């Protein structure tokens, strides 16, 4: 009974029936295909668990400072487009939740950041309208009557959306000479998560479009992570004082 309970917990969340037999009945712990599945599933679950809080440091930083200075709303919109594309495309193709689940939680947190950016610039009504329009569009995209060609096209736009999103934020950082209220924890977790997703998307979906999206995302997240390190000691007030001195 105990073995059956363990099997029900492991299959299908961490491994297939075949892999359970290889590991626990044949004691073949070096079965490479099954090891890949186990690592991929483990990484996927870890990424999803991390996504529950990956953007919370960013949200707390904005709320604590009562400011979204240094953040680009256009960048947030493009990032939201990319996240939504991945989520809708994965649901439409019935990919396992472990392959895309973090997109759901990243979407909710990104929407919250978009609202806070309006709220702290005294545009609360626009913030509420932004959320209402977004969730209305999301409902339409998830509706079965939405053509698969539209969903696939949205996923295909992920790469340019990710690139422009990060380039806009990178340009804002460069222009300001600091990274403002960007959270280092959030940026580095996003970078690590996108790197790990390259492997899990290849292993669990076999979809080259998904894998390529995460390759591009990793490169772009790496740029922002580099800027955070480069501007580590630069703060908005300090930069303004230095400009005045000059």
UniProtKB/TrEMBL annotation:
Compartment(s) of residence: Membrane
UniProt record, GO biological process: oligosaccharide biosynthetic process
Residue stretches in coiled coil: none
Membrane topology: Multi-pass membrane protein
Record bears the keyword Transmembrane helix: yes
Chain segments annotated as transmembrane: 30-50, 71-91, 97-116, 128-150, 182-199, 211-232
Keyword Aminoacyl-tRNA synthetase among record annotations: no
Gene3D superfamilies registered for this protein in UniProt: 1.20.1280.290
Keywords recorded for this protein, A-Z: Membrane, Repeat, Transmembrane, Transmembrane helix, Transport
Primary localization class, coarse: membrane
CC terms in the record's Gene Ontology section: membrane
Pfam (any one): PQ-loop
Signal peptide, first to last residue: none
InterPro entries according to UniProt: MannP-dilichol_defect-1 (IPR016817), PQ-loop_rpt (IPR006603)
Family to which this protein belongs: Belongs to the MPDU1 (TC 2.A.43.3) family.
Function noted in UniProt: Required for normal utilization of mannose-dolichol phosphate (Dol-P-Man) in the synthesis of N-linked and O-linked oligosaccharides and GPI anchors.
Protein name: Mannose-P-dolichol utilization defect 1 protein homolog
